[in-house]
Design brief:
The chain is an alpha/beta fold. The protein contains four helices and four strands, in the order E-H-E-H-E-H-E-H. Helix 1 packs parallel to helix 2.
Length: about 130
């Protein structure tokens, strides 16, 4: 069972609007969150806010709240995101897409998700 403290959540489009609000809520719950947005200054601001919402004065492992300034349309950015998730968390529990996309299929293909559903896993790919 995934607990609130061990839950790992990626929020695409977290640098503003509903994505930012969702990031704040997950931070308050104590989840591990990955803030993803295109504008680095906005991403940094949301991360600082999330740390405040989570009451984090220190993060010894440095992996409770992660960030990347990246674009969903960039294969390189999404591969970098996948690599960081594999390295820091060893898996993912929830992916929230809080941005406008025409279809999620490119992200699913880049992320190398084997199965779409409750027990989805991200598998490493040879590079």
């Amino acid at each position: 069972k995934v607990t609130r403290e061990t839950e790992c959540v990626i929020i695409l489009g977290a640098s503003s609007g509903i994505g930012c609000s969702i990031a704040h809520l997950y931070a308050e719950r104590g989840a591990h969150i990955f803030v993803v947005g295109r504008r680095e200054s906005h991403v940094n601001k949301v991360v600082d806010e999330c740390k405040e919402h989570a009451g984090l004065t220190s993060d010894p492992k440095g992996n409770k709240i992660l960030e990347i300034a990246g674009d969903f349309a960039s294969v390189d950015d999404m591969i970098k995101l996948r690599t960081m998730v594999e390295t820091e968390w060893r898996g993912l529990d929830m992916l929230i897409v809080a941005m406008r996309v025409s279809a999620p299929r490119p992200l699913i293909a880049i992320a190398s998700v084997d199965d779409i559903g409750h027990n989805s896993v991200i598998t490493p790919q040879a590079t």
